[in-house]
């Protein structure tokens, strides 16, 4: 008491929102039996403090406070109301990101006012992560609530398929509620609607009617182990703790793969060049195809290859261009050629089919009429007609025979069918019965015999000879067959021939013969056999050859190539010569 005045004080330390409200100060004079009340309204200034209250329409008298950042489980088809309350002054409240259905619908989450939302006929689409947010001049606050509807998932309606390869693809599931549903995962079904178009890729256990599935716990799912060039139907189901959705709409996808073998439509020989046409492959997916075109002479094993890239552009499809072709020039006329065609893309190379064509040219001994055209800017002028008869091709050699086989060698003899300066030589072709490729030896035109060396032991050979002139080649002679000696027979003959030398070594030491016969016998046998071969050939050429009219030897191109006939008197083996250049 000071100067007749009484003091009373109320202190609120560390004020909280629960300290707000009305405070009454009561005073009085007991002597006069009088009292005085004074009301103080206390407001707490600070950032808003939020809380959410649940009102269940089935139990309207029960209100439930929702804990901060918790999950709310709602039964299917229930109606509920959620109110967000802010303990602050002043403040504004807003609900955000609630529900996956349009608020204009009769069902779904509907916002009644700024602080209240209502769920009518709750369904799986209403599962969402909602949050209520409030702010004032002192700050802001947000409270989250995970609404989970106890209902089976709705059907998946938004599916995208990307990154399709030959054996796998990726399915993207566009679902906003996938992480909110309790225990949610997806079943992805697939069923092949057609077998692979390339028979080399078909699985032995491939069954069109089988329905396969796999589970996926994410919205991005990779599907593996599919068949190339196969059309599949894909559909999905969503599964959670409360049931399974119906099937989604089916998506039809055709897998990629290595190209099928392109089909050669036609091979046309136009004398100067050959035109090969084939049916273009259209993968309908923008994949570029590279065609590998190869050709060779049928008697050669060396393929010549050219690559043609075919861009699967939209312009080609609009023009309906379905045939591709290639020109091949500088082929030897009157020869047999093999052609093959393969297609390659990012997933592999197709198989190929080999087509064979005999190239044509001017016929021998035939009269042709021709004229020359002169073309200028003014016009075309024709020359007078002229005639020319082509030369006759030579005949094949006659009486082709094998005079003898000694130590992996054979002496071949024949008789000429043609004489004159136009004959440039002979080509001797030979191979074993088990081989598909002929070896060849060039023989000068003055010769009627040759020796084939480096043959295989105990093998059956087939042989024919062609006469070559400056005008072309003859047809093959009649096929001749012969058998080379076995290794055992050669060793027997060689050991007999070298017996004296071996006994001489053996006489110096009792053990010498046993220890050295495997060293000296093959060497001595080889030397003696080679001497016998050359001696036999020399005597045969000197005393057994029939006389013939010799022609001047000329260095003439052999079938317009760089391989020329040698002037030497004996033929030289040319086993490594590539027949492509004949």
UniProtKB/TrEMBL annotation:
* SUPFAM superfamilies, sorted: Fibronectin type III, Immunoglobulin
Which organism is this entry from? Trichoplax adhaerens
Compositional bias (Polar residues) at which positions? 563-582
The UniProt keyword set, sorted, is: Membrane, Repeat, Transmembrane, Transmembrane helix
Instruction: Tell me where in this chain the Fibronectin type-III domain is found.
Output: 152-258, 396-487
The record's InterPro entries line, in alphabetical order, gives:
FN3_dom, FN3_sf, Ig-like_dom, Ig-like_dom_sf, Ig-like_fold, Striated_Muscle_Regulatory
- Asked if the keyword Protein biosynthesis belongs to this entry, the reply reads no
| Superkingdom, taxonomy of origin | Eukaryota
What are the transmembrane regions? 519-540
Q: What is this protein called?
A: Uncharacterized protein
Gene3D superfamilies the UniProt entry points to: Immunoglobulins
Q: Where is this region: Disordered?
A: 560-582
Which residues are in the Ig-like domain? Answer: 60-146
